[in-house]
Structure to design on (566 residues):
């Protein structure tokens, strides 16, 4: 797939996946290149939940990278997605986050009117006033429209792509990710909260953090101390064929004595919760998995931490800022007890989460630490040099997988 | 003392404990069974029950402080709460319901200051002996956005 020619003033990346230079997070020309080649290229971008727009005329606004997008349910029940940009002068077409029952969309600037699928239907004063002014005779509104996305739904999750070259979403995520998404999202979902966390770092630092199974029990002391997640628990990490999607899983803790963390900062035998009901959980999927992170390249995550269940969607807002959207979920048929567990266990995740608040600041620490290190590199050798699936989470295989797909998509 | 003044006194003591880093005193402003939730006005409008912090016992609040002291990693920072006058919305003699606007400025260790949060405290307050304590404090932030992280409670 050939994208537009983009100047590449930055240096050449080293071969392999174990050394990423810091300019890859810092170069101010890269965001435009990523927008053109990656977000508008052969990738699947999360748009919304199918149930966010249940009826004809329901719509939401979101972004594909930095491109504003409208997702709408059309009269025939299909889902359409198109750039939220009037073709006339470029204004946003929809200003709000969501709406219901629209018959069409009219740009506020000059009242150019689009149908629910994003096709231009009429132009105000197209034929002028009293025979004067107006558009040229040959102007056909339906020949114009903002860019339209190809849409796929996966178990109630709506994804869109601007490239005809993007493979079917099932092949794109691979069988392991597909199986996990089907299990978690294959029932009627209910949104129970939406929050946005503003990260002081490049979006790729967060994309790596999501895939970094090595850091979890080292940075997040709460996890290890309360034995919610330790690398010595069972589990593993699976990487998609193209590298960019992954599943990591942690099995529920066993009672065996674990000495692997002796002497490390993240162990404090004295820590005990005063109210352990926070962690009361139901093995709701019957798979013994206490923590599961599923990523879809480039910027989507489906997560369950015990009974806390969330989507994460993160969007670049400049080279060193990222908006991280948390959408907390339950199932429509949750028992009251299970719903209470979810509400309590959201304390583990999100911007104030016991095992996630560090992820809000760690990317900023990297930005600041590497401020003068554009020509230096990271070291990504835990678990080898490749991107194969592994039984151990003391591995950076999924981080290397992200860079494998990033390089292929960016052609860098 | 009028109910408004007693609420204002409670709010002043609450804010002083947090802003002076006496976090261990913070859970003691709540009944043993309580609800402390940090959410946003939009989440409340949508009827979404989740909060980024959600505690339904005083012991969970103590755990939050314990985790901040012992477990969680974040840069040293402090808050300054500016708390407005309570507006009493109900008072049945047993329990007072009130809405109180707040503004929190966050100062980081390098001196950077940001307007971190504004919103309304949606409170239900009851006596425990001579003290007024929160049975419920819903922190309804005006913005959906939280900058970097929310460690210290609001």
């Amino acid at each position: 797939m050939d994208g537009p020619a983009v100047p590449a003033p930055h240096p050449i990346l080293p071969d392999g996946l174990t050394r990423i230079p810091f300019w890859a997070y810092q170069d101010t020309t890269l965001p435009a290149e990523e927008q053109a080649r990656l977000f508008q290229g052969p990738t699947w971008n999360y748009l919304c939940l199918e149930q966010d727009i249940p009826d004809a005329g329901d719509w939401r606004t979101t972004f594909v990278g930095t491109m504003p997008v409208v997702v709408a349910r059309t009269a025939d029940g299909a889902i359409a997605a198109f750039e939220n940009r009037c073709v006339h002068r470029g204004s946003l077409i929809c200003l709000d986050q969501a709406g219901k029952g629209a018959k069409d969309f009219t740009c506020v600037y000059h009242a150019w009117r689009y149908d629910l699928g994003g096709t231009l239907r009429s132009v105000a004063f197209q034929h002028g006033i009293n025979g004067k002014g107006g558009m040229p005779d040959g102007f056909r509104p339906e020949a114009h429209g903002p860019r339209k996305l190809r849409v796929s739904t996966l178990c109630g999750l709506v994804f869109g792509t601007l490239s005809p070259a993007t493979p079917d979403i099932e092949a794109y995520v691979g069988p392991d990710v597909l199986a996990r998404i089907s299990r978690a999202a294959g029932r009627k979902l209910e949104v129970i909260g939406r929050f946005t966390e503003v990260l002081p770092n490049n979006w790729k630092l967060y994309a790596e953090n999501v895939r970094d199974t090595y850091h979890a029990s080292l940075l997040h002391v709460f996890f290890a101390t309360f034995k919610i997640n330790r690398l010595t628990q069972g589990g593993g990490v699976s990487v998609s064929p193209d590298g960019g999607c992954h599943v990591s899983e942690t099995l529920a803790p066993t009672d065996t004595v674990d000495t692997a963390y002796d002497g490390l900062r993240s162990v404090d035998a004295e820590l005990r919760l005063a109210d352990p009901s926070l962690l009361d959980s139901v093995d709701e999927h019957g798979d013994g998995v206490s923590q599961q992170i599923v990523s879809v390249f480039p910027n989507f995550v489906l997560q369950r931490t015990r009974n806390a269940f969330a989507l994460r969607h993160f969007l670049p807002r400049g080279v060193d800022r990222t908006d991280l959207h948390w959408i907390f979920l339950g199932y429509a048929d949750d028992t009251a007890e299970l719903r209470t567990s979810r509400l309590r266990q959201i304390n583990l995740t999100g911007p104030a989460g016991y095992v996630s608040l560090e992820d809000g600041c760690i990317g900023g620490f990297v930005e600041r630490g590497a401020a003068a290190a554009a020509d230096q590199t990271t070291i990504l050798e835990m678990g080898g040099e490749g991107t194969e699936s592994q039984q151990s989470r003391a591995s950076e295989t999924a981080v290397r997988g992200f860079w494998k797909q990033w390089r292929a998509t960016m052609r860098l | 003392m009028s109910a408004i003044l007693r609420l204002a006194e409670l709010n002043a003591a609450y804010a002083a404990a947090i802003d002076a880093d006496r976090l261990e005193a913070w859970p003691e402003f709540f009944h043993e069974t309580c609800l402390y939730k940090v959410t946003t006005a939009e989440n409340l409008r949508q009827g979404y029950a989740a909060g980024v912090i959600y505690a339904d016992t005083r012991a969970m609040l103590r755990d939050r402080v314990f985790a901040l002291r012992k477990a969680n990693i974040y840069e040293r920072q402090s808050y300054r709460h500016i708390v407005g006058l309570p507006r009493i919305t109900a008072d049945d003699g047993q329990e007072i319901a009130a809405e109180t606007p707040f503004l929190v400025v966050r100062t980081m260790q390098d001196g950077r200051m940001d307007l971190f949060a504004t919103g309304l405290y949606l409170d239900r307050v009851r006596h425990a002996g001579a003290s007024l304590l929160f049975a419920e404090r819903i922190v309804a932030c005006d913005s959906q956005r939280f900058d970097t992280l929310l460690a210290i409670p609001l």
Observations:
- Chain A touches chain B at residues 191-200, 219, 221-222, 225, 268, 271, 273-275, 277-278, 323, 328, 339, 342-344, 346-347, 350-354, 357-358, 360-361, 364 (CB under 8 Å).
- The first strand of chain A starts at residue 45 and ends at 49.
- Chain A has two domains: 45-152, 175-410.
- The mean pLDDT of chain A is 92.
